[in-house]
Amino acid sequence: MMAPTARKWSDEEVERRLQAVPVPDRREDWRRMAREPFSEAEIAHAVANIRRTLERMETDLSREAWLAGNAFSLADIHLSPYIVRIGEHAERGIRLGDYPRCADWWQRLTARPAFARARIEAVVFKES
């Protein structure tokens, strides 16, 4: 989703933004978005991983109320930044509504007071 915007950045802008990314793997992802687009095979692999994660979550949520059991846990917290951005993948056919247990889990998670305080929001990329 970020690639069209990142490709417009000057080399100096890319370098400035990359310096702010502390994790080497994420820094490389951002560099690739800006200068070496991911191949369709790489995108297909990532989409398959997202689907596999949602399917596993769906299975886990068929057994218990939360991902690691009947209590809200670090497992639920860990996946929330990924699920908040799931709408970015609709054009590739990934919709949270296709995973009803995940959608219910997400509704319950976002209804928690701590979620509102954390201010986890989907990223909206604007053309610069």
Description:
By secondary structure, this protein is mainly α. The protein has 2 domains: 1-37, no CATH class; 39-128, Glutathione S-transferase Yfyf (Class Pi), Chain A, domain 2, CATH 1.20.1050. The protein is 59% helix and 0% strand. The chain contains 7 helices and no strands. The two termini are 14 Å apart.
Which sequence of SSEs, written as H and E, runs from N to C? HHHHHHH
Q: Care to count the β-strands? A: 0
Low-confidence stretches: none
Total domain modules: 2
Percent strand: under 5%
CATH architecture of the largest domain: Up-down Bundle
CATH topology-level fold name of the largest domain:
Glutathione S-transferase Yfyf (Class Pi), Chain A, domain 2
Shape: globular
Rg (C-alpha, Å): 17 Å
Largest sheet: none
Features:
single chain, 59% helix, globular, 7 helices, mainly alpha, 128 residues, Glutathione S-transferase Yfyf (Class Pi), Chain A, domain 2
